[in-house]
Amino acid sequence: MRPDPAAEEGVAVRTLCIDVGGTGLKALIIDERGRAQGPRVRVATPRPATPEAVLEALCALISPLGKYERISMGFPGVVTGGITRSAPNLDGDWANFHLAEKVSASTGKPVRLLNDAGVQGLGVIEGKGVELVLTLGTGMGCALFVDGRYVPNLELAHHPFKGHQTYEEYVSAKAREKLGNKKWNKHVARVIAQVIPVFNPDRIYLGGGNSKHLRIALPPRVKVTPNEAGLLGGLALWKD
Ligand code: BGC
After folding, report:
1. Which of 207, 199, 239 is nearest to 226 (CA)?
2. Does the CB atom of residue 104 touch ligand 1 within 6 A?
């Protein structure tokens, strides 16, 4: 693994934060205080979203960007040790893809890679007690934190919710398109009501691109967080 440039004292460190989404690939360079160092760029996720196609599109997206010293990436599936294990909303075989290593080889920078909801959570949690993050986008992301420590790869999305329908099928972007916003909001409210007595979290954060369509009254200690947090969490990813 390449060394973390921040380990050298007095060196300004910029982080390139990348979010691999089922609909879009997004990137933004931020400084040590989370301030944007250029535009947030986005390109549609190539279809079919095979590892090769996504890698190529990512490299094209980030190559014109300014200077940065390290990279943080959020990925829409299970990730262990920089290797992707699943990607329900992408295509092709992501079961053993060394994504962090590949991006590091193409850019010459160290890369840290985590599940997208995990990265989002790192950008918003308080770091105390049990905190649950649910992201509402193409799929449904879920991340659990205990006193600021991430419990990796809790894939609540694929647990049955109602009948044969999983949580993800119940509140995904496709569900919203099919049901309309009003019914989709009711579905999200039911999901929240279901997870509260199961996880008994101190706080729940709702994020992801579709959280802007939420119109329900939220229970206490549940709040909507800005989608940009998904990128800002990339800074926290380098705090050991
Ligand atoms: C994946 C999760 C991911 C979520 C949001 C789900 O289908 O299983 O790992 O966080 O989508 O992208």
Report:
1. 207
2. no
Q: Residue 92: CB within 6 Å of ligand 1?
A: no
Q: Place domain 5-119 in its CATH homologous superfamily.
A: ATPase, nucleotide binding domain (3.30.420.40)
The preferred substitution site among 168, 169, 171, 206 for testing ligand 1, maximizing ligand atoms within 8 Å of CB, is: 168
Collapsed DSSP state (helix, strand, coil) of residue 49: coil
Sign of the four-CA dihedral 78, 80, 84, 85: negative
Q: Convert the pLDDT of each residue in 83-112 to its tens digit.
A: 999 999 999 999 999 999 999 999 999 999
Q: What is the pLDDT of residue 232?
A: 78
CATH 3.30.420.40 domain locations along the chain: 5-119, 125-224
Residues pairing with 79 in the sheet:
84
Share of residues in the chain with pLDDT > 90 (%): 91
3-state DSSP assignment of residue 101:
helix
* Shortest-distance Cα residue to atom 12 of ligand 1: 76
The token pair at 113 is 């890679």
The pLDDT-based confidence of 200 (bands split at 50, 70, 90) is very high
Measured CA to CA, the distance from residue 37 to residue 51 in angstroms comes to 28
* pTM score: 0.94
Third-level CATH fold of 125-224:
Nucleotidyltransferase; domain 5 (3.30.420)
pLDDT digits (tens, 9 = 90+) for 207-237: 999 999 999 999 999 999 987 776 779 999 9
Q: Which amino acid is at 207?
A: G
